[in-house]
Write a structure and sequence with these properties.
Layout (H helix, E strand, L loop, with lengths): L2 E11 L2 H32 L22 H20 L17 E5 L6 E3 L2 E3 L6 E4 L9 E9 L5 E10 L14 E4 L3 E4 L10 H4 L1 H13 L5 H15 L1
Antiparallel strand pairs: 1-5, 1-7, 2-6, 3-4, 4-5, 6-7, 8-9
Amino acid sequence: MRKINRAVKIRIYPNAEQRVQIEKTIGCSRFIYNCMLADKIEHYKKEKKMLRNTPASYKKEYPWLKEVDSLALANVQMHLESAFCKFFREPSAGFPRFKSKKSSRKSYTTNVVNGNIFLEGKYLKLPKMTAIRIKLHRPISEKWKLKSVTVSREPSGKYFASLLFCCENQTVEKRPAEKFLGIDFAMHGMCVFSTGERAGYPMFYRNTEKKLAREQRKLSRCQRGSRNYEKQKKRVALCHEK
């Protein structure tokens, strides 16, 4: 059978100490990305050659980088290298940009090496921290092999972990179709079947548009940077998430 990759996103519930370590790893990943990008740009302007720098070369100048997962920093290097390769291959993709502390995605990726990451019951063990409590929304087969984990923090303040597994592709035996069903696009209800039925969507966004608009108006009246502004910003993020 052919091997495929399958990702499963789960909710994680880190305690105060684990949240500090996660935020520290996210911040260090963003910092090393910007440092490496700046040095690459400066070196290219002087030598007209691409600089082959690594995160390890920065740990002497910034010793606090040793406090976070080294594999997370190694993945930053891989992402930066792939961004440069994509730019030179497809200039329309755009030149790699610096990551903003406010607007960039709050996440980092680490790899499984020598059993440093594993699932055990209702807990997920990650490098440089104790086991984190999780909530599994679906069963995971024991035959699946864990490859990497991406830890992220949403604007609403919730933490998630995306687990990437390597598993076998389950092929389904093809059988001759006994009946055919036509599906047509519709402006209201998204799709209509040839039997006359309409797809019963919950319409979460349309049903909460008024509430979202009300929360956004409250946010616009708050003073930017104040405590009430941050609280209201979280309420708007929760509306978008729902």
